[in-house]
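Module 6 notes. Inverse folding takes a fixed backbone as the condition and produces residue identities as the prediction. Think of it as a translation problem where the source language is geometry and the target language is the twenty amino acids. Below is one complete input and output pair. Work through it position by position during the lab.
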C-alpha cells in the first residue's frame, strides 16, 4: 500500500523532540472519543496495536495506525500531520507542550 500519511516540518520537529525524550513512538489516529479525532502519539511499547488497526505509513520512523472502521471511511483520504498551539490528548505524548498534533487531509482521486 502506498503511504497515506505525511507530516509537516513542524510535526517532524515535535516528533523529534518527543522521541529524544521518550524513545521510539507510534501514532494512532483517534476515533473521536474523549480526545476528539487527534492523532495520538504513544511510546511504541506502550500501545497494543490490534488486528483491526491499519498501518497507513510512517512519519520519520514512527508507524502511523488507524482503526479499520475509520480507515474504511477515510480510505480515499491522505492524512497530513501538522502541529498547532494547544494541548495534546490526555494520553498522548504531545500533551503538556503547549502544541499538539493535528490531522489535516486531502481527498485522493478515486478510480472506478
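Target side of the pair, the amino acids:
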Amino acid at each position: 500500500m502506498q503511504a497515506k500519511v505525511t507530516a509537516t516540518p513542524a510535526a517532524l520537529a515535535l516528533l523529534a523532540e518527543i522521541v529524544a525524550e521518550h524513545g521510539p513512538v507510534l501514532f494512532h489516529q483517534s476515533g473521536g472519543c474523549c480526545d476528539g479525532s487527534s492523532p495520538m502519539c504513544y511510546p511504541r511499547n506502550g500501545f497494543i496495536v490490534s488486528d483491526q488497526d491499519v498501518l497507513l505509513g510512517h512519519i520519520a520512523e514512527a508507524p502511523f495506525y488507524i482503526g479499520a472502521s475509520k480507515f474504511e471511511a477515510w480510505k480515499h483520504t491522505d492524512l497530513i500531520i501538522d502541529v498547532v498551539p494547544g494541548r495534546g490528548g490526555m494520553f498522548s505524548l504531545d500533551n503538556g507542550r503547549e502544541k499538539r498534533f493535528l490531522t489535516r487531509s486531502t481527498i485522493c482521486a478515486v478510480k472506478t
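Reference fact for the lab report: The helical segments are 9-22, 68-74.
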